[in-house]
Amino acid sequence: MFLSPPKLFEETRPRETTHESQMDARKDDRDDPQTEASHTLNIDWSSEVERSIGQYRLVKLLGEGGMGEVWLAEQNEPIHRAVALKLIKAGMDTKTVVARFESERQALALMDHPNIARVFDGGSTPEGRPYFVMEFVPGIAINRYCDKHELTLQQRLELFMDVCDGVQHAHQKAIIHRDLKPSNILVHERDDKPIAKIIDFGLAKAIATTSRTDQTMFTQVGAVVGTPEYMSPEQTDFTEGGVDTRTDVYSLGVILYELLTGVLPFENETLHGSSPQEIVQKLREVDPPRPSTRIRSLGDTSKSLAEHRKIEPRAFAHRLSGELDWITMKALEKERSRRYGSASEFSADIQRYLNDEPVLAGPPSATYRAKKFVLRHRFGMAIGSILLVFLVAFAATVAFQARRIARERDRANREAATSKRVSDFMVNMFGVPDPSEAKGNAVTARELLDKASKEIETGLANDPEVQARLMYTMAKTYENLGLVAESLPLNHRSLEIRRRVLGLRDPQTLSSMNAVAIDEYMQGHYVEAEKLFREVLQLRREVSGNEARDTLGALGNLSATYQVQGRYAEAEVLQRELLGTRRRVFGPEHPDTMESMQLLANTLNSQHKEADSEKLLKDAFEIQKRKLGPDHPDTLMAMTNLAATLKDEKRYAEARAMYEEALPIQRKVLGDEHFMTLSTRVALAEILMGEGDYAGAEKSFRELRDLDQKVLGADHPRTIEHMEDLGVTLAHERKNKEAEQILNEALHLAEKSKVDNLAPNAWYALATGAAAEGNRDEALDRLEKTFEHGYTDVETVRNDDDWKSFRGDPRFEAILNKAPKQ
């Protein structure tokens, strides 16, 4: 029976300020910018910059650094396209800078590869400032692209291999990049496929140079060139020939480390802020941790990183350990001779990993090679394994069958003994009593049930599982009779036994815990019910998963406790999630889906969203009536819920007709003292009050008062609410003394209660009573206290007929304007 989600970890790292990056200029990463750029890139060509260089109109400054500026420019002839124009900054045209600038242009002009940004043109401005025009890449840094699109580890490796191909092409053209990092590798999409482009060859070095001009672009003696986080140890060696192609391999290794883990190798030993000597020392002497080790050290922080890679957090470090650790750490070796000799070797080892072949980076042990052999020859090994397993299984079958037969025999004997104990107990408990005991009176089923519930504690003490099961069943019977006070002790005892015997996570224990929570709810102990429902929900999720029927039931129960305590926004969020899940998992007409529709409708009605509530309830009622028939308790529940919404909309005639149709069926099927029958009678009394028939309402509320105390108890929230209704009714009849007595008694009980919204509601009833009696000042004083005690439903006050005459009163409006918001 049912009663009717952290801040993501975002790593921090030093801001990349390289002026060559085009990433901030990205408008749309879907197409190639070189054709029909104004359409594919959504570029606003109406720039305020009124400047052109040759046939290129400057549109937007993309970035700038120490020596140059990069502009987004529009080329109109001979074709219309977006380009990136790199221009030496005014005043920076020294021989050294011009030589480096010219070297970058020459380096790019030498290369023609799909993963390297191309050079289209070059020249000088009228002022003599050199520039060159290159491909505009409308992408974002490779690490940001991978995280934004949540690429898997395999997809990241495949994209990284494209980068290696581009770097290899540069090396074949005798060019070393020397500043490889994510912001210099931009990724955009073409035909829904990611394309990586290497940019910024501003620090590039020719492997073999002969001219003096070429030599001017090299690092000045004593200066460190590059980005510390991605710089190889040899880049701190200022002697001639200190770098080669393996320098770029090291930088690629850092990028791969970051793509796999989401953090940098030296994240904990931050290089920024260090002196040049400290940077050199760390790069040459400090070994970074393996990727898998780094992930394990992050603890809970690694969960968000795993989500960006679509991998279970528990499996993240395991996936990285072994081959991916070996490959990455080989590229990050301090000694160049131990690294991959080229970017292509690096890429080839990654391809071996993806093909389940032995990688060169790993130790070539026999076990490792055997494992890779099995992965490559899955089909043949599977056939051989099946045959071996079949032979072993066949040999073990006889022994296994013998053990199984023995277990089945023992289980049958235990079940037979249990059945006999249950049978003997039931015969003893539910047999016809001795005439001398009955004394001629008829013995009711309720009396038999009461007798059994008292005797069960001793009658089955030797079999606690059966004892707990019978207690649970008897409690369910009491609940169905509307006798929650009798049900609660049995469910408590059943839970205690099952916790001790079966453990907290056993399904039977969780059923008992849920039953106790329901009883607490029905008794009006909403705080205790909420605590238990929250525990049940957590355990159900762990044991059965998020979409199991019992888990969703626990979610609905928790939302019901929010609703009844006036926490409507919290309840609505859970109930909308629940309704969507149940519709998808079970279908639109499943009983659980019907329950969710009514739960959400009641919450919406409490928030004065009557139209939305009415639609949901009408749909649920029609489905229940068609599938279950008009007399089914679930159909009656849907009917009375719909009638409640109509009543709140003051459509009294329609509401009364539905309640009067439901009431005789409820009396027949459920009995006069069932809580649903009582709820219908209370609703009919409220309709009389709403129509101004205060004498009729008073008569009904007085009849219900004794029943409330008998069935629900004097301190039950519904008993208190019905007392408030009686008090307001008496106030309308000018029976002021009795009205004040009952309303103050309700306030006293409400303030003793643990239910948060009972006391504010009781103060509102007192204020309404004073308003009905015509005591204007006292009504406003009490209304002010109502809001001071946490009442938030301003809309009800504005629409309440008892407060009609107060509308426009400055003090009344001031009280409402200062009221706390829901």
Uncertain stretches of 5 or more adjacent residues: 1-21, 23-42, 208-223, 431-443
Q: How much is the radius of gyration in Å?
A: 39 Å
Helix segment tally: 34
Shape: extended
Helix share bin: 55-70%
**Overall mean pLDDT:** 79
Beta-strand content estimate: 5-15%
- The count of β-strands is 11
| Biggest sheet overview | 6 strands, antiparallel
First-residue to last-residue Cα separation: 30 Å
Strand order of the largest sheet: 1-2-3-4-6-5
Structural class: alpha+beta
Protein architecture, described:
- This protein has 822 residues and is an alpha+beta fold.
- The chain is 60% helix and 7% strand.
- It contains 34 helices and 11 strands.
- The chain has a 6-stranded antiparallel β-sheet with strand order 1-2-3-4-6-5, covered by helices on one side.
- A hairpin with a 5-residue loop joins β5 (119-124) and β6.
- α6 (245-261) packs antiparallel against α11 (323-331), α17 runs antiparallel to α18 (484-502) and α30 (736-752) packs antiparallel against α31.
- Residues 1-21, 23-42, 208-223 and 431-443 have low confidence and may be disordered.
Write the layout of secondary structure elements.
Layout: H1 37-40, E1 52-53, E2 56-64, E3 68-75, E4 81-88, H2 95-110, E5 119-124, E6 130-135, E7 140-141, H3 142-148, H4 153-172, E8 175-176, E9 185-190, E10 193-198, E11 205-206, H5 212-215, H6 245-261, H7 276-285, H8 291-298, H9 302-308, H10 313-320, H11 323-331, H12 343-354, H13 366-376, H14 378-430, H15 435-438, H16 445-459, H17 464-480, H18 484-502, H19 507-522, H20 526-544, H21 549-564, H22 568-586, H23 591-606, H24 610-628, H25 633-648, H26 652-669, H27 675-690, H28 694-711, H29 717-732, H30 736-752, H31 758-773, H32 776-788, H33 794-799, H34 810-818
Antiparallel strand pairs: 1-2, 2-3, 3-4, 4-6, 5-6, 7-9, 8-11, 9-10
